[in-house]
């Protein structure tokens, strides 16, 4: 019986190593996990592109956009990625500094994001807006502006994410900075009383909303679309803010290694077209940045449409992120 | 045969020491390798390491220590009382199930536990009405230090209880018989029998709990209520993730290790040597010594601990039952993740228990052979040094090894091996604490006999130590499995699509609005863990 144990172990572990062989004409895409999840855009996109290129697509997924950039920094020149999909504009300056990316040719004008797009390395594939999402069963009178959120009833709490560990958390810091400028620390000092808790990531904060623990959470304007379409519920709504909403634009880029693989350029072209873009709204829960064939689900028509799109250029975020996050930290730790 | 006794005795000890050295080398390889990898990555720019030492670090380090010490005291103190109560009430309905349930928190991801705790004590929790009345106003929720402490005690009180119970089980039945014959009451029995056994394990258990609390991350951020509650682990995570500053991460990790070492040394002073009986056991059963009043007290203690531990678990179960369990159970992704979790946890647990046994045996052999009063450093290293692996953040181990593997070969092919190795190592501090009291007690009884009869190596393990160690080894195996099942850290860093485990799937679902699915998966994870506990209990009993 004792001799059986190693055999058993080998049998248990063996399947884990199988199935990573690269086929002829293969494209390796680095992305984040919710993109490649069963219900994410990944499976649809892979199927559609493989049918078109008669090649094989291999996804390598990490936790999120930040982890994606770190993975690239760790791998450096030895990266296996042809395409990197899932960075946002807060990260593109740092990403360019790695020197791993190649220009995409002329795709910028094919894409349509509010505020326009002109970047010769990264191509946007979707975008969204940060918003305060609230439980309409709990909160009858949601804030109508950032000012109302900051000054409002401190008994009505909001769960926010930590900018040191999460992308939406950083989004709120940038949003408030964009509205209040140098007065941002004062705004945070007032908002602090309304903050129920600061979570490490989006999942935990959103969990607090759906568990009824916090009536408000920092999320996206598109979050209610998920509940309307998948759960047939309009209980969770996004609050429309008079000052405008901060944007997140998600982009993809081709690596220098990818520039030698004709499939990479082909994929970027494909990404700007309807076969990719159609998958975005109801799997990634963001707005498509290119032409779609299918009209958006009517639920998307009911979402908050920001009066104004707020965003900092990538370079400005890269230059100030640390100072702004430290500023946040010193106010919130008092 | 007789003339060879001496020689064989020495050789047997050598074999155990060699095995211990192999185990120590494995620990050193995995932890040292991670450091080498990160240092290599950081070598181009060390400025971050020096910049790490500022006022912020001081504040964070202070809070880390403060909450960890408090959590340890609040977990370990009551655990002594609870373990004693369990040890003295050996037969009551549900005892076995309760003790199995006590191992489940180990397998639960922190986020699941945090939400379970909030379901009871949160702003909208079940007890918020009662707590509002007590607080004389609106209950603001348990956020802050109290939230952190409650969650940490939830994780660690049951763990410490089971470990103390393991130590109490090493008190020979003969001593109990003697105590009964002498008419020893509860108080002297505690003083002369139970406390010495528990005291020997106290530093190890307190050290383990302390390390687990030092490295707390999700609990501290989520229940701490804001960035005022920040641990070094958070700072390390930030340094590696958002700032991508390996030098700073290395410096912060070094601070975390030094702080833990210092505290560890301080804790060890509370310990004492437990002189186990050298006689062969002849008593057949435990003699009850508890009187009626004490019995009532014990049952009350057990009931209180049980309610505290199962409260959040019930909340987790209720949330899980709200999920579409039928669909989840047949879902390909869930089944695959469950199998992957098992495929990783089983070898990790085997490896962990094997290495732990080697370390425990090596330490004992060194202790038995030494003439000086103070333990030598190899003895210390095999005793408690190896458990320092727990204060290495999984992100650091993952990132460090990633850098190395990148230069050696295929990172993705190595991912499952890495996960198994790191999980095995992370579980060792638990396994060592389960196995050591029993092994040391058995050794104290049998060492001379074995030397005299020339029994060593495998035959000794099979014939002499095996039968006594069956139950603790089973428990250690179950602990290691539970821990590996719940692990998220290392897997998340390697993030290969072929290695999707249950906790990974849980986080993935939570990250894309599927909160109910996540609750369902948490329930499956807990049930799986409980099932494995039952199996390993059986197996352990089989050999005993």
What descriptive keywords fit this protein?
heterodimer; A: 334 residues; alpha/beta; twelve-stranded mixed beta sheet; 41% helix; 21% strand; disordered N terminus; B: 544 residues; mainly alpha; 22 helices; 77% helix; 0% strand
Secondary structure blueprint with pairings:
The complex is a heterodimer of chains A (334) and B (544).
Chain A: H1 4-17, E1 26-32, H2 33-36, H3 42-53, E2 56-62, H4 65-75, E3 83-88, H5 92-97, E4 101-102, E5 122-135, H6 146-151, E6 158-161, H7 167-180, H8 184-191, E7 195-199, H9 202-210, E8 216-220, H10 223-230, E9 236-239, E10 245-255, H11 256-259, H12 262-271, H13 274-277, H14 280-283, E11 287-288, H15 298-301, E12 309-310, H16 314-332
Parallel strand pairs in A: 1-2, 1-3, 6-7, 6-8, 10-12
Antiparallel strand pairs in A: 3-10, 4-10, 5-8, 5-9, 5-10, 5-11
Helix pairs in contact in A: 7-16, 8-16
Chain B: H1 5-42, H2 47-51, H3 55-88, H4 95-101, H5 110-121, H6 128-135, H7 145-168, H8 173-181, H9 186-214, H10 218-224, H11 232-241, H12 246-268, H13 292-321, H14 325-330, H15 332-369, H16 377-383, H17 394-408, H18 411-453, H19 457-486, H20 489-494, H21 502-510, H22 515-543
Give a quick summary of the entry.
The complex is a heterodimer of chains A (334) and B (544). Chain A has 334 residues and is an alpha/beta fold. Chain A is 41% helix and 21% strand.
What can you see in these coordinates?
Chain A is α/β, with parallel strands linked by helices and 334 residues long. Helix content of chain A is 41%, strand content 21%. Chain A is built from 16 helices and twelve strands. Chain A has helices at residues 4-17, 33-36, 42-53, 65-75, 92-97, 146-151, 167-180, 184-191, 202-210, 223-230, 256-259, 262-271, 274-277, 280-283, 298-301, 314-332, and strands spanning 26-32, 56-62, 83-88, 101-102, 122-135, 158-161, 195-199, 216-220, 236-239, 245-255, 287-288, 309-310. In chain A, strands 1, 2, 3, 4, 5, 6, 7, 8, 9, 10, 11 and 12 form a twelve-stranded mixed β-sheet that branches. In chain A, helix 7 packs across helix 16 and helix 8 crosses helix 16. The N and C termini of chain A lie far apart (62 Å). By secondary structure, chain B is mainly alpha-helical. Helix content of chain B is 77%, strand content 0%. Chain B contains 22 helices and no strands. In chain B, helix 3 packs across helix 13 (292-321) and helix 7 crosses helix 9. The longest helix of chain B has 43 residues, at 411-453. Residues 1-12 of chain B have low confidence and may be disordered. At the A-B interface, helix 1, helix 2, strand 2, helix 4 and strand 7 of A face helix 5, helix 10, helix 11, helix 15 and helix 17 of B.
